[in-house]
Amino acid sequence: MTMLCRLASGASLIAATLGYLSSTSAMAQSATSFDPQVAQELRPDEQGAGEIIVTGSRIERNGFDQPTPTTVIGATELREGARTNVQQVLNDLPQFRPTVVPQNSNGNVSNSGAAPADLRGLGPLRTLTLLNGRRFIGDNNLNVVPFNLVSRIDVVTGGASAAYGSGAVAGVVNIVLNDKLDGLSLGGQSSISSRGDGRRYGFDGTFGTSFADGRGHFIAGVEYVDDQGIGPDGRTSRPFLGAGIVRINPAPGALDQRTQIVPNVNFGNTAIPGLITSGVLAGQVFNSDGTLRPFRGGTQILANPAARFQGQMIGGEDGTSQTDNVYLSTPFERITSYARASFDVGNATIWADGSYGRVKSNYPFLYDPTIPPINVSVNNGFLPGAVRNQLLAAGQSNFTLGRYFVDAYTIGLQSKRQTYEGAIGIDGSVGAFKYRAHYSHGETIRDEALQNMRLASQYANALNSVLIGGTPVCAINADASTANDDAACAPINPFGYSNLSAAAKAYTTGTQFRHSRNQLDAAAVQVQGDLFILPAGPATAVIGGEYRKERQDQSVSSTPQLNQFAVPVFGFGLNGGFNVKEAFGEIALPIIDASDLLKVDLNGAGRYSDYSNTGGIWSWKAGATVRLFNDLLIRGVRSRDIRSPSIDPELFTPQSINILNLSQDFQAAQYAGTPGYNPNPSITTFTGGNPQLRPEVAKTFTVGGTYSPSFAKGLALSIDYYDIKLADAIGTLNASQLTQACSLGNSAACGSVVRDATGTVTTAFINFRNLASLLVRGYDIEASYVVPLSQLGSSLPGTLRIRGLANYTLRNITNNGLVSVDSAPNAVRWRGRISISYQNDNFGIDTRVRYLSGGPIDTQRDVVTNPTTGVTSGVINNRLGSYAYFDLGVQFRVADRFTLFGNVNNLFNRTAPLETLQSGTYDQIGTYFTAGARVKF
Q1: What CA–CA distance (Å, rounded) separates 647 from 161?
Q2: What is the pLDDT of residue 659?
Q3: Quick one: 583 and 640 in the same domain?
Q4: Is residue 679 situated within a structural domain?
Q5: Are 266 and 316 in contact (CB under 8 A)?
Q6: pLDDT class for 408, splitting at 50, 70, 90?
């Protein structure tokens, strides 16, 4: 009830404010009808007069059927789900994967504030994003796109490097803005989860007007979003988010080494206030006042009489884990602004635009997981006297303390990304020829600070304390005869929660900084004309050229503390760049045009790219379309697509560090009998670039068709098969793959994995190389039906729209140079969504179902028995059921220009499944409410 009241209050405030503006504005004009903006996937020549721009091709011609499949995201899809940026809209489509979202950005500094698109799951760098058909500085971060100005999104679900250059291996996302906007619009919305967290607020405004008797036009938009995220406390009310993999039979050396995924897996050898794990007081936990109490532990895993406290346990009141102390959804604050002016001069339109975007994050990022157990001396200056006496009575001079310092060494992240861009261009015609040209310059400036980072030597000094005159002091300052004094040393009290002094925390921590600047200069020119006349029509060609220059400069902390950090995340700067000069051409050949019977078009394109760092390379495509009886279109295309390695992280990135969970240790059987071994630990990974990388090369084949029967106007069906083979794929062997390669006898891989005395992986060294090949095959299926209800009955108002999209992954094979793994059989193989929308002049309702099929989590984890050793291994609950999420949205038009809207995502509160990846595939937040209002003048 509290949550609903807050939501209602927020919506009421927005409504009251906008209602006041509506009633008092001097700009109020005559009312216009409620705009349903129902997107219809019609053929280009059915969309009305005027020039048709097709994203998958450079050819701009009415009646031209392009062979490359394209999915159009119109106003209805943009509205559904009350999403706040383009990435969220795309991630609702079956073809996209939520690779980087706020729910899986924990533990990765680079992802903070980023919102890339990942088509086919081939990685964000293999999906090219365009703004109005051109490259922009925000490529790979759709947070900088002005969402309130988006008119539609065209998704080319096939290779398009010949048309647009590097990066279009999986396809192209072209975001088309409404450059004919007229009038003023103001809006706001407020969101909250059913658990009372995840609050989000947003406001936006757009304005457009003509001038100079209609020859000029100006548009502008600004939007603000404050997403407060969901902190660690939000995990307690959501089951399964602390899941881990544990042994079923913990007996050392047992042939049964099967594992299972269970919730609430915690560390069994540490506690936040400090757990004594050795000696006469083993099993005692320190209270904040220095007294002791028994450890309220859970079920220990891998029990061994010689090692009472293991790395894993299930449950326990004093239990804690890495996931318990990080945000479920990272918070951010975003501002985006854009303006465009255009002016018609003769047969040309001159335009200029500019944009500014900023994304800020500031939150407790990650607990330092590298702190080892503490060896506490009986002479420790903070050790309570009663405890010291017990130890002395037992003849014990020290003990081991497992202390989880979330109160002192939780790393804080401050991140700010700012994006600036300006562009100028001209579109026009001279006689029968049309031309386009533009130039843009953009910069992204990123500042990051990791606060509260532990200083290794100072931490060691501060831990070692003694009593001098009844006062704890650092041991290095206790002996006047030694030369290793440090006057600044302030001793650490490791016993109990929140007992570190401000001086000790200041002495043992510092801040790491990183500043980077990315620059993109892009220029392009193209000319289109008819070359000659064929019996079926003119042969149309486009020729053109592009120039692009990319550069990145990065600096890091230069303080004397730089080399003293226990985890030096920002260890090195970066300076690098490249330029590319390209020439391209495309031709459309109408071969047959028998009216209402048969139409055949051929299409071909080629592009030569000369990179300053890797040399020249070709990309091309060849395709054809066959239209039968106006209703059936059959299309196919073959292409060679490329992706040049990126400056960051692939080419010039120096060594850096990330903290993540090891998903699987392929050598678990070798170490399972060792006390304290953990098969699923948090590990440190070191990554770096490689200036010797070559471009990736993909061969893409798509074939399919669409059917729009003339006897059922508004109905459209399509199915397309795609086959993408990528060679020289740039990638890394992740930590799990390194353990797999090591198990197969690869000595280099073994040398890249560091284990502690228990056999638990602690560190993995990773760098980029042209080592892999990828194969992705599948089907895209779409069906839509749009019908004005007046066709069913003259008295029925409004329009009904039904649209279904589905993707089936047939193959998803990754060959990392060592082994080939097909992840297609894993959940999720089928992805789909179906939406039903109704709209009339005053009311609209959107219903949507998002579907994910079930299956094994990872076929590599299936239970198997080694016939030679008799060892049985694998995960017994390695399977997930299918999931369906139901969303509901409504819109009400009141007082002419005033619209209220509301939305509920995951209406039935389907919880996330029991799995360890938390990849963002499944909804981890639960039911989520949004309410808002908009007024137009």
Answers
A1: 19
A2: 77
A3: yes
A4: no
A5: yes
A6: very high
